[in-house]
Design brief:
The chain has 667 residues and is an alpha+beta fold. Among the domains are: 157 residues, Immunoglobulin-like (Sandwich), CATH 2.60.40; 215 residues, no CATH class. The protein contains ten helices and 27 strands. It starts with a strand and ends with a strand.
Length: 667
Amino acid sequence: MILFSAGKIRSSFRGTSISHLFAAGLMFLVSLISGCGHESSIELPSPTVSSVVPDSAGYKDTLTIYGSGFKRDRSLYRVVFSPFEGSGNGSELLGSIPGVSSREVTPISVSGDHLVCIVPDGVFTKSIAVENTALSGIFPMGVAPPPSISSPLGFNVLLHKGDVARIFFTSYGYRWNVKPLDSSDDYLVIIFCSSVPEQNTDVFDYSVEFANSTGNVLAVNGAERGLGASGGGEGPTADGKNGRRLTMGLLAMNGEKAFKRHVRREISELLEREGHRRQHHPHSIEAWRRFEGSAPQSASFNVLNTATGSVLDPSNFTVVQAELKYEGEHTLLYVDTNTPPSCLTDDDARFLGSAFDEHIYQTDHEYFGTESDINHDGKVAILMSPVINALTAPGTADTEGFIAGFFLANDLLPHYLDSRTTNGMEIFYTIVPDPAGRYGNVFPKDKTIDVVEGVLGHEFLHMILFNYRVLIYGRGYSGEYMEELWLNEGLAHIAEDLNNHNSDNIKRANMFLNDPGGVALIYGGDELEERGAAYLFLRYLGDRFGDTIFKKLVQSHYAGIANIEHNTGMHFFDAFADWSAACYLSGLGITSDPRFSYTSVDLRNDFDALHVEDIPSGSDSYSSTVKAMGPEFLLTHFNGGSTSSIDIESKGSNAGKMNAILIKLDD
């Protein structure tokens, strides 16, 4: 909606998908939409209001606003909570800042001298006013009449134990007041920055001042708050976050990061070039056939032999001869003929083939969607080869990580590529076990088979997503609908979870929980802790909206934040704030609100303790840095009284747009 006031155009966001909660008060603008493109300012008589009873209330409490001249049609009115300080015109309206919006509710009943409404969620220390949306007078054709607004009434919304208040500002500093109900009130403050970083390593400065506070008198990660299964950790080591040695599964994820980014970049550039060239004469992606008739017992495959070279260069591919070891309803599993039985037996191959055919295939179909079938055989192939082992430098797998397996988009884009760089079929590539380290790194058989099984579920998600976003929506030549990296990988980790390979998800999530403010959910560089954050965020969305949300996200035409907003009906800041609150509140027992709880995982007992920043006892200020869209958690204790307040400021060369969530921890 475009809002006009005193000749100034202001922006406002309205609708169920963006409900911002603030800690300041409210004000209104006269709004006008001109169907003819003409700008006008038309004033209507404002509703007359005199008092609100009670003048302090909590979430879901009933308010009665008294006044005069109300019509009995409740649809004509809205009660609005909006950022405003002082009294006067729109020049004092914080809501005029782009990105800041009011909180509105429709009355539940109206009579001639009063109306009744219900207090919305998560707001505190506000004013309220009544907006009249009734038609009045004669207006030019195509011009909608603006609403009129009453004068604001003083009103405080009280926070009770477990209540969550969200404050979204696009300014660089602000204050809000807290009204403790007694002399020993504890609050959790969660700060996050909504600025867009220039680089994924950027951090933003913030400082917090607490008036009438004794600082954090609680032990950081203390048991009295039930913050998790284990306390604060040891310092980072070369083996991983907080002294943990990385597991084989984590090493596989760590080793593939640069490789996947490199491949993704090349494929994106390929699609961009081909999209411009072929958009008027696209080839059918259904015309390619790799195997005619039944699958051959022996076949040759073009296999990438470099982790750093171009995936479009035929010299970077090796022709591998392989034998069919398993054929199921949906699956063909081939093993490189150079693989000795001591590395992989036929029984091992059949186990992996049946695991994919009978479990992973159905699970990923149920929760995400279907893969393509460009060679019309109705099968997904798996090739296990020592060539994939050799993609990892000798002796580095247990320190720097390794590439365990992958899906290569080349195989689904045969018409654009040299035939020596594609197999023209749905296929995954994986390492073979190597207990003796004959190919450069030791990969114990049992652990390797378990890792490969998890990789297949993970990579199948990528194949399914590519089918929808490139082959269907992009018609096989456009990358316009490709998903953003953080959400793409987050969904792949959900696929691991749904296929009962969740132990490494927990370890990645622990890395995030150990330093949440230092982890960027959506702007990161694909680090393990960022994947852990993405997994927890998506697992939360699945618990809140049902696991059908995953299929909606995969099969959407949207990407990244827009995808989340479209399929949840929430503004992304709202979803992020509720998730951040759930990371602390889930399992704590102080709120029954399902928005702030996980149901599929036990965050308190199966994961590490959530790290809360240490504000020294007696301190009235705290300064630190935070990454964009990484939640910082602070505990503070107020002594009570009218002067209790919290000031947040971000300034200087590393200033950011700070937002906050406030949770009351006791009554």
